[in-house]
Structures are given as structure tokens and as C-alpha cells.
Inverse folding.
């Protein structure tokens, strides 16, 4: 029985990891067609509306699935089925009641929020932004309930349905985003700005459709679980509603606080970037277009490595927790070094590509070159955001849950100060710089905390230097190939789009070959560390075993 349960739990955890990875990838891919449909202005409107939605949905949901799952799992172990039902009813009641005022706040507060986005031209901002904010408000009626249902199933260690619901929610949302935006753009061909605003509203409304799909799946999944538990409930609950709620919030609150960091950073950008750009002299349309490029194109590209960082971090957390519990500091140190090497191996080439070939990337993905400078300006953020994420997992693995939250808030505060200092003189690049420095500060504080609380004497420069040298070879080879490919084909390929596609493909292929070979030869990453990488790890590991020089390496 235990082996069957462990097998089901392992299978459910694997499905959950795959689902989260798929969700993250889809969350990056849809930006490309949506940007082409609604343009930079529409993307700016969409980003502003979604930033408010994310912070309100985080307030209503973050921490509840984990807290509910923990409490239910504990009561199930003691066979207190009455308590399980009590926790379920109390949680679902509170979440349902909480969803109504939050949805109302977003709906009725939309004009006020829209005015705050552009204080120099509040009426124009409200006319285009208000309906995008209101379109996503109904989602807040559904999302809290979804979080409660997921928490209930997690408590029973039924991870498959929560995982499938996440994937289904994102798939329906992405399809609805693209289809809805395309439809309303056709209806508003006569007015591009109105079309962009309508397309953004259709895109934000897609969150509600995705949430509805997930809700239906979860309701069908929860019903049989409750039926199975109900006949065994011979006695009533041993805890009151007040005690259940107090215990729930005691667990959920710290998780919610940590989850609020990134949404707060998004709101800070929404309230500062466009206002400061308009005070600099840009019109509302120009300011929101530049913000759309920064938030939904450049930053999404810079965050590509975070999908790998999340997979690496989530896999290393339990292993580090196990080694730390045994006081095996040597193993913890070895795991930290290997994880950081793997993270650098995946992150550095993305940063190099964004720095060296931003024009072809922008042209091929978004059919414009207006954002190439912003893409290059935000490239380094990818390293520090991935390092922050991985080091957060490390700190959690060694039992320090609150330090990364504090460090992230410090980074957000630094970002706010630098926004105020650098956007006026440097424009949108000042915002990109502020974001990068914010992540630099928080990731550095995290790494220092890992060394302190993990009792390590790692040389992070020694860990990073082989990957940096390999990245140097990558940059040189990519820059040369980029130049040669352009000048070899500029008179042969008439279409600028296909010319840039050829240029980008050649640069990336040559750069990738050079980087992989250089990284393996320089011991930037080992075969065992490569195996932990998702999707591509085993193939790279086999290559490393063939061509990597045999030598000892210290960390």
C-alpha cells in the first residue's frame, strides 16, 4: 500500500513539474503572436491591466493551496476526517467571500487605477485602459476557489488533477488570448489605437476563460475524493471554524508575503515608468508603447532561462534539505556549486544572444526593430533573476524561508529608487537598468546568505569563470557570423524579415556549437550536472563524456 502511494505521489509530482514547465513556456510563447496582433501600445495596456490583476489574485490565493494541503494531510494521517471537512468548508467559504470584494475593487477601481498610470493625461489613459482592467476582474471570482480546490487535492496527495488544471488553464487562456485579440482587431481596423485597446481587453478576459476551464476540471476531481472521505467520518470536527481559519492564515501568510514581491515590482513599474516617461516629454501612446516593449517583450525574453532555473531549483531543494538535515555540509556545498554551474551554463548564452543579435531577434519575433535597444538593455537581468530564483530554492533547502523574501523586498526597493533616478535622464533604458540592478542586489544578498547559513567557502568567481570564458567565445563567434551572414545575403534576399531570419539562424547555430564545445572543454559544467538539465541534459551529458578532458576540479 505504501509503495503504491509513494509511486502515485512520485508520478503526481512529475506531472506537476511538467505542467509548471509547460505553463511557463506557454506564458512566454503567446507574447509573440499577441505582440504582432495588438502592437506595442496594446502590449503596454495589457501589461498594466495584468499587473493589477496579479497583485489582487496573489492576495486572494497565495499560500492557501500549500496551507490547506498541509493541514488536511496532517488530519488525514490522524484519521480526523471531520476536521478535514471542516477545513475544506471554512477555507472555501473564506475564499469565496474574499473573491467578491476583490473583483468589485478591480471593476470599480479600474478608472482610478487608469488615471494613476498617466497623471499627465489621465483621461486618455482611462479611455483605453479601463476596459482591459475590467475585463480581467471576473477572474477574481474564480481563481480563489480554484486555489482552494487545488489545496484540498494536494492534502490528499492527489497531485495529478491540480497539475492538469494548471496546464488546461494556461492552454485555454493562450488560445483565447490569440483568438480573441485577432477577432476584435478585425472589428476595429478603422482605428488602430482603439483596436489595440480592444485587443488588450480581449487578451485580459482570456484569464477568466482559462480559470473557468480549470474550475470545471477541479470540481469533477474533488467530488469523488469528498465522497470517499465522507463515509469514514464517524465523528464530528474537533476544531472550530475560528481555530481552523487562524491555523490556515498562520501558514499561508508568510507564503503570501513572499509571493507578493514580484507583483509589487510590476505595480511599481506600472505607476512609475509611464508617468516618468511622460514627464520626460513623451505622449501617452509613446510612453505606453515603450513600456509594452520593456514589460512584455524584452523582459519576457530575458526571463527565458528562468524556466530552466525553476526546474533545476525545484529538483535540488529536497536533495539539499536531506543533506542539510544530516549536517552533511560537504554534500550541500557540492550541490550548490553544481546547481550554480548548471544555471550559468543555461543562462549565459541567452544573455549573449540578446546582447549580440537584438535586431534580428526583434525583427523575427515581433516584426519590428523598435525594441532592439531595450532587449539588449535588459539582457543581463536574465542572469541575476535566474540566480535569485535558484538561490531562493537553496535557502529554502537549508531551512531559511524568510531571508530570500527580505532580500527580494530590498531589491524591489532599490528598483523603485533607481526608476525615479534614471528614467528621466535615460528614458526606458533607465527602467531596464533599474530592474537589472534590483535583481543584482537581491541575488547577491541571497548568495551571501547561502554561504553564511550553509557554512560554505565557495568561490563563486571560480564557478562562473569557465562559463564566462566560454561565453566570450560565443559572443565573438556569434558577432562574426552575424556580420558575415548579413553581408553575404543582403543583396540575395529581398525581404528584410527573411534576411534577418537567415542572419539570426546562422548566428545562433554557430554560436551554440562553439559555446557547447567550449563549455565542456573548459569544465564549465560536468556530465553529471548536465544530466539534471530538463529536456536536453542527457544528450549534452553524453557529448561531455566523449570530449571533456579528465581532470579534477575544485569549487
Amino acid at each position: 500500500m505504501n509503495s503504491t502511494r509513494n509511486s502515485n505521489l512520485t508520478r503526481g509530482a512529475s506531472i506537476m513539474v511538467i505542467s509548471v514547465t509547460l505553463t511557463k513556456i506557454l506564458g512566454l510563447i503567446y507574447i509573440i503572436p499577441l505582440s504582432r496582433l495588438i502592437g506595442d501600445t496594446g502590449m503596454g495596456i495589457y501589461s498594466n491591466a495584468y499587473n493589477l490583476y496579479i497583485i489582487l489574485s496573489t492576495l486572494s490565493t497565495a499560500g492557501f493551496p500549500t496551507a490547506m494541503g498541509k493541514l488536511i494531510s496532517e488530519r488525514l494521517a490522524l484519521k480526523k476526517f471531520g476536521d478535514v471537512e471542516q477545513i475544506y468548508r471554512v477555507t472555501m467559504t473564506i475564499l469565496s467571500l474574499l473573491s467578491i470584494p476583490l473583483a468589485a475593487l478591480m471593476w470599480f477601481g479600474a478608472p482610478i487605477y487608469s488615471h494613476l498610470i498617466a497623471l499627465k493625461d489621465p483621461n486618455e489613459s482611462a479611455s483605453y485602459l479601463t476596459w482591459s482592467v475590467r475585463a480581467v476582474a471576473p477572474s477574481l471570482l474564480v481563481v480563489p476557489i480554484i486555489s482552494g480546490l487545488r489545496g484540498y487535492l494536494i492534502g490528499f496527495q492527489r497531485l495529478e488533477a491540480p497539475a492538469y488544471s494548471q496546464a488546461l488553464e494556461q492552454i485555454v487562456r493562450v488560445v483565447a488570448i490569440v483568438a480573441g485579440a485577432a477577432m476584435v482587431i478585425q472589428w476595429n481596423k478603422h482605428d488602430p489605437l482603439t483596436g489595440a485597446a480592444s485587443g488588450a481587453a480581449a487578451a485580459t478576459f482570456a484569464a477568466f476563460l482559462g480559470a473557468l476551464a480549470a474550475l470545471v476540471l477541479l470540481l469533477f476531481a474533488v467530488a469523488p475524493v469528498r465522497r470517499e472521505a465522507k463515509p469514514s467520518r464517524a465523528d464530528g470536527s474537533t476544531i472550530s471554524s475560528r481555530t481552523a481559519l487562524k491555523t490556515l492564515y498562520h501558514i499561508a501568510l508568510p507564503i503570501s508575503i513572499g509571493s507578493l514581491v514580484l507583483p509589487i515590482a510590476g505595480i511599481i513599474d506600472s505607476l512609475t515608468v509611464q508617468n516618468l516617461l511622460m514627464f520626460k516629454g513623451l505622449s501617452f501612446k509613446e510612453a505606453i508603447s515603450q513600456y509594452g516593449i520593456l514589460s512584455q517583450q524584452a523582459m519576457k525574453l530575458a526571463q527565458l532561462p528562468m524556466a530552466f532555473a525553476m526546474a533545476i531549483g525545484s529538483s535540488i531543494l529536497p536533495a539539499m534539505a536531506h543533506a542539510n538535515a544530516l549536517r552533511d555540509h560537504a554534500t550541500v556545498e557540492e550541490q550548490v556549486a553544481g546547481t550554480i554551474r548548471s544555471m550559468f551554463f543555461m543562462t549565459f548564452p541567452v544573455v549573449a544572444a540578446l546582447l549580440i543579435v537584438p535586431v534580428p531577434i526583434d525583427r523575427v519575433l515581433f516584426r519590428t526593430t523598435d525594441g532592439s535597444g531595450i532587449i539588449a538593455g535588459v539582457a543581463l537581468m536574465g542572469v541575476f533573476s535566474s540566480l535569485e530564483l535558484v538561490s531562493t530554492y537553496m535557502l529554502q533547502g537549508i531551512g531559511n524561508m524568510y531571508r530570500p523574501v527580505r532580500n527580494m523586498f530590498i531589491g524591489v526597493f532599490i528598483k523603485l529608487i533607481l526608476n525615479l533616478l534614471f528614467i528621466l535622464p535615460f528614458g526606458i533604458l533607465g527602467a531596464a537598468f533599474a530592474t537589472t540592478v534590483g535583481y543584482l542586489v537581491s541575488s547577491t544578498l541571497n548568495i551571501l546568505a547561502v554561504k553564511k547559513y550553509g557554512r560554505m567557502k565557495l568561490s563563486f568567481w571560480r564557478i562562473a569563470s569557465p562559463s564566462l570564458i566560454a561565453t566570450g567565445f560565443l559572443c565573438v563567434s556569434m558577432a562574426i557570423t552575424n556580420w558575415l551572414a548579413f553581408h553575404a545575403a543582403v543583396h540575395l534576399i529581398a525581404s528584410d524579415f527573411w534576411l534577418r531570419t537567415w542572419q539570426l539562424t546562422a548566428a545562433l547555430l554557430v554560436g551554440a556549437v562553439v559555446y557547447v564545445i567550449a563549455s565542456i572543454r573548459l569544465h564549465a559544467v560536468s556530465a553529471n550536472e548536465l544530466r539534471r538539465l530538463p529536456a536536453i541534459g542527457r544528450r549534452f551529458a553524453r557529448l561531455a563524456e566523449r570530449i571533456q578532458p579528465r581532470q579534477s576540479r575544485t569549487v
Remarks:
- The CA atoms of residues 257 and 405 lie 8 Å apart.
- The longest helix spans residues 192-229.
